[in-house]
């Protein structure tokens, strides 16, 4: 999801901004450009940081994993008060009458958004994205400072999410979904294949904007060479992951994994609707065991060949 407020305003590059206060912990040494360094190890993430691939998760973006993203992050992180109006969010105070008294509530004007539950037919898996979230790190940093603990590693602020995007341009919701799926995950999905699931309210206490979730299915024939992983020039380094359908509820219930509420809802909705046949049948070779272990397509070798070359 892109952190912009006004259309056509350049996004801040989170990987090259002035982060200079706190030292990075658990930083992985290596080349600065993840997109051109896949030769270092096409499986850098699973090999170097296997703990970031629980519940049968497989990376579909070799050379663009959490390891490469950590290499792109700078040496520190700092928080400052806004010194100019933000083009992304607009803090305001709402004054209203309640029970005969004037009340105040601080709010943030922000864009509505869309998210997409993506099912990969060939892999019998959900397609997720993972990326560094500065707001998550800022929250973890506050908690650590309050507890008198050292700053957390940047790796703690990589969250699992649905493919998603802000409604910040003159396009329909499904057109924005289609664009985000290609940009973040690398699949070309026809507009007619996007199905609306429902709409919830995002950050009701501060933003209160609609977040509409859609559903779509993809397969390896829909991959677009060179697409996916976000736009590095806009500060994005997004890892695309395949989560076996059979492991999705264990994944949702694992509180040690930072994940968005939209992802938790989407995977749960998709899991039960897939099992009861509302979303069509699963492949004949779909795994019935834990973590999709019997699905021959969910191997490192076969997964990495056809999907999203780095």
From TrEMBL:
One of its GO terms (molecular function) is UDP-sugar diphosphatase activity. This is Uridine diphosphate glucose pyrophosphatase NUDT14. Its EC number is 3.6.1.45. It catalyses: UDP-sugar + H2O = UMP + alpha-D-aldose 1-phosphate. GO terms for biological process: nucleoside phosphate metabolic process; ribose phosphate metabolic process. InterPro entries: NUDIX_hydrolase-like_dom_sf. CDD domains: NUDIX_UGPPase_Nudt14 (cd18887). SUPFAM superfamilies: Nudix (SSF55811). It comes from Astrephomene gubernaculifera. GO terms for cellular component: cytoplasm.
């Amino acid at each position: 999801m892109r952190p912009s407020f006004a259309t056509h305003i350049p996004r801040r590059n989170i990987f090259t901004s002035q982060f200079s206060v706190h030292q990075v912990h658990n930083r992985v040494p290596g080349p600065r450009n993840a997109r051109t360094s896949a030769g270092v190890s096409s499986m850098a993430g699973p090999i170097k940081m296997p703990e970031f691939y629980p519940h049968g998760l497989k990376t579909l973006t070799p050379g663009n994993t959490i390891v490469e993203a950590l290499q792109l992050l700078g040496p520190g992180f700092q928080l400052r008060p806004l010194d100019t109006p933000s083009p992304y969010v607009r803090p305001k105070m709402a004054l209203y009458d309640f029970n005969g008294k004037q009340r105040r509530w601080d709010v943030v004007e922000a864009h509505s958004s869309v998210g997409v539950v993506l099912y990969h037919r060939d892999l019998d898996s959900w397609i997720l994205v993972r990326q560094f979230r500065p707001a998550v790190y800022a929250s973890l940093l506050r908690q650590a400072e309050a507890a008198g603990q050292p700053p957390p590693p940047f790796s703690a602020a990589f969250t699992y999410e649905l493919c998603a995007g802000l409604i910040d341009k003159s396009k329909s919701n499904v057109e924005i979904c289609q664009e985000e799926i290609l940009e973040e995950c690398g699949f070309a999905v026809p507009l007619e294949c996007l199905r609306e699931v429902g709409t919830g309210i995002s950050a009701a206490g501060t933003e209160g904007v609609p977040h509409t979730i859609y559903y779509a299915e993809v397969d390896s024939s829909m991959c677009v060479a060179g697409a996916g992983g976000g736009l590095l020039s806009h500060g994005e380094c997004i890892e695309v992951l395949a989560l076996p359908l059979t492991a999705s509820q264990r994944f949702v219930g694992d509180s040690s994994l930072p994940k968005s509420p939209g992802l938790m809802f989407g995977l749960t909705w998709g899991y039960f609707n897939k099992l009861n046949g509302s979303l069509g049948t699963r492949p004949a070779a779909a795994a019935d065991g834990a973590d999709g272990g019997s699905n021959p397509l969910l191997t490192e070798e076969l997964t990495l060949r056809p999907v999203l070359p780095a």
